[in-house]
Model the fold of this input.
Amino acid sequence: MYGVGLVLALVLSACSQAADEDAGNPLPSRTTAQPPSPAPVQGRLPESTARALESDLTSGDPDRVADAVVVPPGADLDPEFVDGMTGLGLVLDTTTFRTIDDTTAQVEADVDGDPWVVYLVLVAGAWMISATEPVVS
Done:
């Protein structure tokens, strides 16, 4: 249900210059909303995968950032997006990992002290970040 729209939201944000800088959002987002409550997952997001996603996204290295986020083949990430992610305090909470369907999932995250939802897409057997949104209290 969410897959295509979420992938497009991140790709358009990361590949253009629409990273919500004016709104003060540290990650690209599609909307500001309450996180959905999908059914509990049968599997899990390994700690090593979560730490690699965090490290790659915040590395400042465009190639590593591209390893963490869904980007269309041949597209370049916006350098301002990569710079904006550098050093970001991102921690994925693997205990909150939930599937949405066979190839999409969500996980809660702490981003510099603020709660966020991170949407993931399974690409060639690896979870990649497809979109994010802040949690509204």
Residues 86 and 124 are 26 Å apart (CA to CA).
